[in-house]
Amino acid sequence: MKSNYKILLCFSVFLTACDATQFNSPYTEDQSESKQAVLYESFSERPKHMDPAVAYNATEYTFIAQIYEPPFQYHYLKRPYQVAPLTATHMPEVIYLNQKGEKLDYDANERVNDSDIAFTDYIIEIQPGIRYQPHPALAKNAQGDYQYHQLSQAQIDAATSLYDFTATGSRELTAEDYVYQVKRLAHPKIQSPIAEIMKNYIVGFDDFSKQVKDKSKTAIRDLPIEGAIALSRYQYRIRIKGKYPQFIYWLAMPFFSPMPWEADVFYDQAGLADKNITLDWFPLGTGPYLMAENNPNRRMILLKNPLFHLETYPTEGELEDRQKGLLTDAGKQLPFIDKVVFMLEKETIPYWTKFLQGYYDASGIASDNFDQAIQFTGSGGVALTPTMLEKGIQLQTSVAVSSFYMGVNMLDATIGGATEQARKLRQAIAIAVDYEEYISIFTNGRGVAAQGVLPPGIYGFADDETGINPYVYDNQDGKAQRKKIDAARQLMTEAGYAGGIDPKTKEALILYFDTTATSVDDRPRMNWYRKQFEKLGIKLVIRATDYNRFQEKMRTGNAQLFVWGWNADYPDPENFFFLLYGANSKVQNGGENAANYHNPEFDRLFEQMRNMDNSEQRYRIIQQMQEIVRHDAPWIFGYHPKNFSLFHGWYKNLKPNLMANNQLKYTRIDTAARAEKRRQWNEPVFWPLALGGAVFILMLIPAINAYRRRVRETVQ
Amino acid sequence: MTQYIIRRLLYSLPLLMGVNILTFVLFFVVNSPDDMARMQLGQKHVTEQAIANWKQQHGYDVPLLWNNGAQGEKKITDTIFYQKSVGLFLFRFGVSESGRNIGADIKERAWPSLAVALPTLMVGLLVNICSALMMVLFRNSYVAKDGVYAASRSGSGAALEHAGIVLCVILMSISSLFYIIGGQFVIGKVLRLVPISGYDDGMAAIKFLVLPVLIGVFSGIGSGARWYRTLFLEEVGKDYVRTARAKGLSETQTLFRHVLPNAMIPILTGVVVVLPQLFMGSLIMESFFSIPGLGSYTIDAINSQDFATVRAMVFLGSVLYMIGLLLTDISYTLVDPRVRLS
Fold first, then answer.
1. Of A239, A258, A277, at which residue does a domain stop?
2. Do residues A464 and A588 both lie within one domain?
3. How far apart are CA A266 and CA A150, in angstroms?
């Protein structure tokens, strides 16, 4: 009787843990959903850093961009991408100064002579009244002292998580917090990935870095940095060297978010880091969300920041935005979602299944599920399959601001260099390596073959026939058509490699392709590359090594061909062309120019273009630079990936914005519709279980008979 | 016995040192501190200065094993090996290269691993032993006749034993991945009876554990039952079994009261040694079921060139394995009074 009771108890506990109608629900807090708008998302890779001075990848930005607020942001709806104020009251006042620090006056055309500019000041004014999220670092006791800034050993020993410090406090955001963050970027102990870049721009950054090298993180508060000064409680100035218009984009990145000094004082207390209570794991920001649970092994939860300042949904956008319903929420206070649950999903099968069951609101499309979700229309377009349409799923596609290319080491004696022979060889390869085929085979058509350095959406990208690469494509009625392989073979002949034969060895020309693609799954891709070169009679030798050796080869210039990619930091052509700027050569200067390309004319144009504001002249220079690179072919232009994302019908305000990372605040979900769909899609099916039980019992009968007979035999 | 245990524990110290040196050498043959810095700093804008800074902050700016530039004992102590290894013997694992406290991470992740592995082991053991005993029971029904099949009298028993073996071979021939994907498809997706993956704390974890435990048990039946069957078959031919039968015990009583306890030594060898390892988790199972355990911790660390975590996990694995072996030895004395540890 007692054991029956226990079984009953266990069963009832199990049932309590499950929703009565949705046994397969992976969430236990569904009951509260009717009151709260909860968004369910996933992440596949655990974020390493949550400190805005350190975080620098997409996974980390998924979280911290909702928590921290730099002074500027990208407008959610407007295209091309536009920087707009976030915590700032308006766009910064930009003042150009000469060597003496005197303000330069604008001429009749509202311009200053670029060569006179020695410094640029960005005067930024922030909105008053913005408050930090409630946080123990800001908690004060009755006497007005910070409650947790001098923790006793007993308090530290007792704490297992930040949430054990129950008292929280807040304070107003000030300009000084932005200045403090600039100092943090410079502190060697913080190890900001942009410190090395910023020391080239922010005045006094390098000196400050050296000055505080041996000091604690908290010591920087009272030390001034020349390039960042608070002018008043709500106004600060950043002074940079020369003219660098792209700096505004940096100001829209989480690196330049405010950080209260109290955060460092609190987290820097000995013993807290041993419990993983660090700023890297428990952020402190002013954004629409705060981190309520940080368990990167399982789930991360963001909750609406109760102290979030007034920010409203944009009232302007592109022409078609209103028709698409993207302005329905115009003027409404943000954010719309109360809670965001990010679940760790490493495998695509359970992730995809849960999306189809309605337990995730959005999903990417893995190759395995592509055919299930997407079909190609007769005109070559893409559409959702009837199954997806039946579920009310929406498809969103967008071309990423990224470029993948096959790079040529221009220092290589065979294929590199500025000789006519090497150039024609590269051009021939550029024709032969059919990236349209690559996109079709290896990315399910999710990509756009590149015509030049710039991806769509970046200023200077020409989407008409002037943007066609004439060395690789023919212009057929305004559309790019890859040249026939004969054209490539002709170039090979002109290069002295007729039929792919190397005149020195009288055998097929051998080229080496260095890659980190070492797994079995990579073999088809490597074979494909080999076949592309075989079209020209070239023998491609794949040299697959681990990541470290590959990096070493790149650094020392021992690679010949390689595949590389770049994802834009900000939407400006400078952020792509600098990858080919001679002074950034990887071998010579350890820069990002992995091809080690050096063309004086290109470099001259780059230097001219990089500091220019967008204008017709800048556009013309960009086209000239594209032409030089297409002609010299240090890159075999690959493709720009196309993102395909699926969203359930209850997901609102969808517009791809590849530069903004803080889209969550604009998202709205129809929770009632979701609850209804989930119920419909997840009713448990019991009869196969009963049937299986019955079959099992039937199968037991001969076993029982045999057992009985055996027992009888023994007795006999 | 106490002396024996102390001696074994002392033996383990040089072993652990050896494991530690081997891990260190193997890791740094493949990765240099510069490589580690590059991996941690990401792919963009990584300069030599940033690398030097990272190495200095993480204590990788000294020689690996021998510091020629230092004086006295500092030639040894001012090295990466010394500085990174000493804490291990005090179970101070330090901080991972990405800044997380490794000890805290292990503590947090070991329990979910155990929550899956322990029920899987216990239920699996029960099912496998019962299945093996059943097969032995039915086998005896026809080999007793001088090794000649007595299919006419015990036809269904022989068929069952045959079916059991064939089933075991089939079960052990199928990849565990198939069971996972198949189980998720049928039970999670088609029947919608449990969540396809996920985890929660406390009792709420039960509904997430049902499927992985079920699959873990099921996928282990083939090899487990066949292994135990072999052990039992070795025992059933012995004299004491004949004696038990001769005194009139039923076959079931013979198997469960006499054969099973006598087959416990090899069973324990296999089971007790893995008990401490249960904390370490299963890579595939945890990955597919999104269980926040230790299964992928080491692999992730190797992939991200996180030496601190790799050495901590290898060290911990070695310690647990040694504990397992020691427990196995101790357990022998419990199940077999003839065994004495000295």
1. A277
2. yes
3. 8
Rounded Cα–Cα distance for residues A408 and A23 (Å)? 56
A11: domain range?
Answer: 2-23+684-715
The Cα-based distances of A359 to A352, A608, A679, B148 in angstroms read 10, 52, 11, 59
Residue A80 preceded by cis peptide, ω within 30: yes
Please give the mean pLDDT across all residues of chain B.
84
Amino acid present at B177: L
Out of B53, B137, B189, closest to residue A353 by CB = B189
| A596 found inside a domain | yes
Residues A689 and A622 in one domain: no
Q: Are A108 and A6 in the same domain?
A: no
CB contact under 8 A, B193 and A346: no
Which of A24, A196, A709 faces B45 most closely, judged by CB atoms? A196
Q: What is the ipTM of this complex?
A: 0.83
**Same structural domain, A118 and A181:** yes
Q: Looking at chain A, which residue has its C-alpha nearest residue B144?
A: A714
The predicted-structure confidence for A218-227, as pLDDT tens digits, reads as follows 999 999 999 9
A555 and A700 together in one domain: no
A7 and A98 in a single domain? The answer is no
Which residue from A357, A548, A713 is facing B141, i.e. has the nearest CB? Answer: A713
Within 8 A of A347 by CB-CB distance, chain B residues are 197, 287-288, 290
Look up residue A511 and give its DSSP letter: E
Q: Among residues A643, A674, A707, which one ends one of the domains?
A: A643
At residue A212's C-alpha, the angle toward residues A211 and A217, to 5°, is 170
Measure in Å the smallest separation between the Cα of B69 and chain A Cα atoms.
22
CB within 8 Å: B204 and A28: yes
Are the Cβ atoms of B157 and A710 closer than 8 angstroms? yes
Lowest mean pLDDT across A277-281, A322-326, A429-433, B273-277 = B273-277
The reply to whether residue B134 touches residue A703, judged by beta carbons under 8 angstroms, is yes
Q: How far is A196 from chain B (nearest CA, A)?
A: 7
Contacts of B57 in chain A (CB under 8 A): 188-189, 191
Express each pLDDT in B53-107 by its tens digit: 888 888 888 888 888 888 888 888 888 888 888 778 777 888 888 788 898 889 8
Residue B157: the pLDDT is: 60
Tell me the C-alpha distance between B35 and B24, whole Å: 15
In B, which residues are within 8 Å of A353 by CB distance?
Answer: 184, 188-189, 196
Q: What is the CATH number for A587?
A: 3.10.105.10
Q: Does residue A448 lie in a domain region?
A: yes
In this structure, is residue A661 part of a structural domain?
A: no
Q: Which pLDDT score, from 0 to 100, does residue B147 have?
A: 38
Task: Tell me which chain A residues have a C-beta less than 8 angstroms from the C-beta of B191.
Answer: 684-686, 688-689
Min Cα–Cα distance to chain A from B231, Å: 21
A18 & A68 share domain: no
Domain match, A10 and A89 both: no
Joined together, the tokens standing for residue B107 give: 């503590």
Q: Which of A45, A48, A199, A360 to mutate to test the interface with B (most CBs of B within 10 A)?
A: A48
CB pairs under 8 A between A and B: 187
Asked whether the predicted pLDDT for residue A329 surpasses 90, the reply is yes
The C-alpha atoms of residue A631 and residue A253 are separated, in whole angstroms, by 35
Q: Where would I find the H helices in chain B? A: 2-30, 33-41, 48-58, 74-77, 80-85, 102-143, 155-173, 176-183, 206-236, 239-246, 251-253, 260-262, 264-272, 283-288, 297-303, 307-335
Domains in chain A, number: 3
pLDDT one-digit tens code per residue, A49-94? 999 999 988 889 999 999 999 999 999 999 888 999 999 999 999 9
Q: How far is B194 from chain A (nearest CA, A)?
A: 4
Cα gap B229→B168, rounded to integer Å? 11
Backbone angles phi, psi at B48, to 5 degrees: -60, -35
Q: Which of B47, B160, B250 sits opposite A702 (nearest CB)?
A: B160
Instruction: Assess if residue A600 is contained within a domain.
Output: yes
